[in-house]
Each structure stands twice: as C-alpha cells, then as structure tokens.
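Hi support team,

I've been running sequence recovery on a batch of backbones for a student project. Most finish fine, but this one hangs at about 90% for roughly twenty minutes before it completes. I'm not sure whether the input is malformed or the queue is just slow. I've pasted the structure tokens below so you can try to reproduce it. Let me know if you need the job ID as well.

Thanks,
M.K.
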C-alpha cells in the first residue's frame, strides 16, 4: 500500500510540472519557429493609446502601466527597439555592471517570451521521456530506494537515442544559424546605411542650394558659353530667397517623411503621416503627395521642381540633382529589402532542422544525466538549450525586416530640423 501511495505521489508531481510548464507557455506569445505563416500585426491602438510620433525611444518595453499588453512583446514591442544612442547611453552600454543588469531583466526579454511555446514543447518532451522511463525502467524515491517499474511488458522499453547523431549534426546546425543571423544583420546594416545616406545628402543638397543661391554666373566672368554672353548676378530679393529655399527644405523633408511612411506598417503611421503633411505643406502640395500612387516619387518630383526654380547656373543645379539620384537609390534599395526576405526555403529549412533537432534532443540527453535523481536534470538542461538556440533564430527573424526597428521618425525629424537651419543661413549677396 505504501508503494502505491509513493507511486501516486511521484506521478502526480510529474503531471504538476507539466501543467506548470503549460501555464508558462500560455502566457507567452505565439511565435513562428514551427510555422511559416507570418505573425499578424498588433491590433491598431485606440486614440487614447496612440504611439508617440518620436521613435527615438529607450530600449525595452514601455514602463507606462496603461500601455496595451500587445506592446510588451512581439510586433507591438518593435517600436520600442528604435533606440538612438547618445554619449550617456554609450557609457551605460559599456558599464561593468551590464552583465548583472542583463541577467536581472532575463524574464522581461521579448526574445525569450517570443519563443515560449517552442521551449514549452521541447521541455514537455523532456518531461515525457523522463516520466516514461521511470514508469517502464524503475525509479528512485526521495529516500534513495530503488523501485521496480510500474509498467511491465515486452513493449514497455526505456526510450533513448545515441548522442553521437546530435553531435554529428551540431556543426551543420551552427552553420545554418550563423548564416541566417549574419545575413539578417547585414540587411539591418544596409537599411541603416541607406538612411545615413539620406541624412548626409539632404544636408549636402540644402547646403549647396543655400550657398549657391543667386549664382547664375560669376559677376566678373565675361566669357561666352555656347555663343551667349554670361549674365551678371542679379540682386537678391531676401523674401523670395527665403521662400524658394524654404521650399527646397520643405520638399526634402516631405521626401524622407514619405519614404518613412512607405516603409512602415499602415496601421502604425498613416494617420500621423497625413496629419504631418497637412500641417507643414500647403493643401495643394499635401493632397498631391498623399493621393499619389507612389508618394516618395511624387515628393521627389516636387523637390526637383523646387530646385529648378532656384536662380543659379544649370551646372550647379546638376550638382544638386545628383543628390536626388542618390535618394532614388536609397529608396529603391529599401524597397528591395522590404519586399525580398532571405529565401523562404532557407529560413524554413533552418526552422525545421532546429525544431526537429531540439524536439529529439531529450531522447539523447536522458542517458547523459544518469548521475542525477531519476535523470531529471535533463529537463532544465533541455529548457536552457532550447531558449539559447531558439533565441538565436528569433534574433535573426527580428533583424530580417529592419525598418520597423529603425528610428526612422527620429531620422525624419532630424533631417527636417537640419535643413530648416541650413536654408536660414545668410548666403551670396546677403553677407554683411
């Protein structure tokens, strides 16, 4: 009778462990390591929960207790990864306490929450292997006494796999994950460089427009060009200069803001985009861009028109227009990244290889933990290995589409402010 009671207690403990794992997994979001279908975007926030326009935010989930739960993990948390570092952030980034700080936020990690169900699946397999082998192979109670198997029969065998098979496949799995992660990072790095080019060449464009305004020719140049004598530099009207250069600055901002909207989810940015365009442009200009089938192209066309209206030599206008060709390149390159993921057959094979490898791993680990009580140390070991490897694959997936984790709104605001400042400087003919 005592043996039956102990058996009941041990079996009950095992099922309680499995139930606890199920509760933890249910609290985690659905992730895609076992599925090829994309995760839908988070529900559109209400008017009282609008995402802030600025995207130069701190790393991590929101600290506001009223923030929606969808902002704590998955798609909703991506806008909180658009960090812009300053000197203070770099000091904290290099802090000797960074390891302690990162470990202290282990259970708040969005990456680990995203792989919760996958980790639950592999850990459940480990619990099953451990429980089954106790039932058919005998077990040891808490007092160290060994008991005979509860289930006996020719079919009731201890299950397991040789570890050598997993050791042989480990280098191949490592190469797949390394290639996946490296190429995802390259995509993020390329997208960031595109926006770096936008920042640099918007400054360059407005600097040249401001410095060359009114330079239709050199006042002392009397040479003829194609049979026509060079004209003298006309007097500069400050009001006209302010307006025409202001249009160049404004259309420069309109292009990068339209590009940001073009690369962002509609539910996140459409309303803010329309409101910003209507607040800064004339109704005619705003409607022309907003109603265009390809908004960045329309904004770039308006910028070309604004440049063409500047009173300067056509060769200098050609130099300004070279920047617009670079904008077309950054726009086209960004569209390529957005529309073309890493080949799906590669991503799917990596996910299937990783999932199968981890689901079968507990069968090979059982014999390796024979020194632990009833081999139960294999359960936390399986969970740790699963979190680590699924986490690497999740990192690659999060990096693969870079635009929703880049602070593009911060870039646009910075470009607009810089261009407004540059065109406000005194130029040719206005020097004191």
């Amino acid at each position: 009778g005592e043996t039956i009671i102990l058996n009941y207690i041990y079996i009950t403990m095992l099922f309680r462990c499995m139930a606890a794992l199920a509760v933890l997994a249910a609290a985690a979001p659905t992730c895609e390591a076992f599925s090829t279908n994309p995760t839908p975007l988070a529900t559109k926030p209400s008017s009282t929960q609008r995402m802030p326009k600025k995207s130069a935010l701190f790393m991590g989930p929101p600290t506001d207790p009223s923030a929606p739960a969808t902002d704590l993990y998955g798609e909703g948390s991506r806008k909180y990864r658009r960090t812009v570092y300053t000197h203070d952030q770099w000091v904290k980034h290099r802090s000797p306490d960074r390891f302690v700080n990162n470990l202290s936020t282990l259970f708040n990690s969005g990456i680990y929450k995203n792989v919760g169900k996958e980790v639950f699946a592999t850990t459940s397999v480990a619990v099953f292997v451990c429980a089954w082998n106790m039932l058919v192979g005998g077990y040891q109670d808490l007092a160290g006494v060994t008991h005979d198997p509860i289930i006996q029969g020719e079919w009731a065998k201890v299950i397991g796999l040789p570890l050598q098979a997993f050791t042989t496949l480990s280098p191949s799995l490592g190469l797949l994950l390394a290639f996946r992660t490296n190429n995802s990072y390259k995509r993020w790095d390329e997208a960031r460089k595109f926006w770096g080019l936008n920042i640099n060449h918007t400054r360059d464009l407005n600097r040249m427009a401001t410095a060359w305004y009114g330079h239709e020719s050199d006042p002392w140049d009397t040479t003829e060009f194609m049979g026509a004598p060079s004209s003298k530099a006309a007097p500069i009207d400050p009001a006209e200069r302010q307006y025409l250069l202001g249009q160049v600055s404004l259309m420069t901002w309109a292009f990068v803001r339209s590009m940001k909207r073009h690369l962002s989810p509609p539910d996140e940015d459409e309303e803010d985009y329309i409101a910003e365009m209507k607040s800064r442009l004339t109704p005619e200009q705003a409607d022309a861009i907003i109603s265009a089938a390809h908004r960045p192209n329309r904004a770039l066309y308006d910028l070309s028109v604004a440049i063409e209206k500047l009173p300067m030599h056509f060769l200098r206008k050609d130099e300004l227009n070279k920047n617009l060709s670079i904008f077309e390149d950054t726009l086209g390159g960004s569209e390529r990244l957005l529309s073309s993921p890493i080949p799906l057959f590669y991503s799917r094979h990596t996910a299937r290889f990783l999932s199968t490898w981890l689901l079968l791993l507990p069968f090979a680990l059982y014999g390796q933990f024979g020194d632990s009580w009833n081999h139960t140390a294999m359960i936390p070991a399986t969970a740790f290995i699963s979190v680590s490897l699924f986490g690497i694959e999740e990192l690659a997936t999060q990096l693969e589409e870079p635009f929703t984790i880049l602070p593009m709104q911060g870039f646009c605001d910075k470009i607009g402010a810089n261009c407004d400042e540059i065109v406000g400087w005194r130029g040719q003919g206005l020097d004191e």
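--
Follow-up from support: It reproduced on our side and the slowdown came from queue contention, not your input. The radius of gyration is 31 Å. No action needed from you.
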